[in-house]
Amino acid sequence: MLVPGAQAAETALPALGLLSHTVELHPLDDLAALTGPRRPDLVVLDGTRNLVAARNTALALSALDRPVPVLLSVTEGGLAAVAASWGVSDVVLDTAGPAEVEARVRLAVAGPRPTAGQADENVIRAGAVSIDENSYTVKLSGRALNLTFKEFELLRFLAQHVGRVFTRSQLLSEVWGYDYYGGTRTVDVHIRRLRAKLGSDHEHLITTVRNVGYSFAAGREPPA
């Protein structure tokens, strides 16, 4: 179990000190421990002191090729700010007792177990592309794509509206949000990266509409 952001486990989730789990402490921006052979069963993010940094780390963790379960520890005041888009498995108050923490750890590690029908409802399929909204993974003809969080969000949004053309400004507000201060060139950069990852056989799925913007054209034949 990793606890990024905490100087001591007791500062993030005091009840952890009363449980038998093996705990390692790391800075919030140290994700290297998640890619090595000693991959943890669970990451406990300390959001009690810097919730924005904890959120950013959670988003980065959700974009990994093999996401690990994330339990976010917050104060009561920070609880209202947590959103589903952060990609955490569960949230727990830093004042939670050992029994509650143990239960949340156990359930987070086990992960959701949807039925076949429920799992299918959370998968967007558009042509050869399948997007799993639960695991934040994308497959192209069965092959997993390594996408960043924003690349995933952009592809998901386009695939949810097959055939509809969006301007760069619309994509910027829908995917990056109204509080993003970057220019529309950001959209072009991410589209270019998405096409590169789709590969030459499938890059045509994202079409450019001259002087307007971009569209997702599932089922469209590649240009001759």
Structural account:
- By secondary structure, this protein is of the alpha/beta class.
- The protein folds into two domains: 109 residues, Rossmann fold, CATH 3.40.50; 94 residues, Winged helix-like DNA-binding domain superfamily/Winged helix DNA-binding domain (Arc Repressor Mutant, subunit A), CATH 1.10.10.10.
- It is 33% helix and 20% strand.
- A four-stranded antiparallel β-sheet has the order 6-7-8-9. It has a three-stranded parallel β-sheet with strand order 3-4-5, with helices on both faces.
- Strand 7 and strand 8 form a beta hairpin.
- Helix 6 packs across helix 8.
- The C terminus is likely disordered.
- Keywords: Activator, DNA-binding, Phosphoprotein, Transcription, Transcription regulation, Two-component regulatory system.
- GO terms for molecular function: phosphorelay response regulator activity; transcription cis-regulatory region binding.
- This is DNA-binding response regulator.
CATH class of the largest domain: Alpha Beta
CATH architecture of the largest domain: 3-Layer(aba) Sandwich
Order of helices and strands: EHEEHEHEHHEEEEHEHHEE
Query: How confident overall, as mean pLDDT?
Result: 81
Could you tell me the CATH topology label of the largest domain.
Rossmann fold
By CATH, the superfamily of the largest domain comes out as Response regulator
Characterize the largest beta sheet: strand count, sense, and whether it forms a barrel. 4 strands, antiparallel
C-alpha Rg (nearest Å): 20 Å
Shape label = elongated
Helix proportion range: 25-40%
Termini separation comes to: 52 Å
Structural class: alpha/beta
The number of helical segments is 8
pLDDT < 50 stretches: 220-224
Protein name: DNA-binding response regulator
GO cellular component, one term: protein-DNA complex
Keywords: Activator, DNA-binding, Phosphoprotein, Transcription, Transcription regulation, Two-component regulatory system
DNA-binding region: 121-218
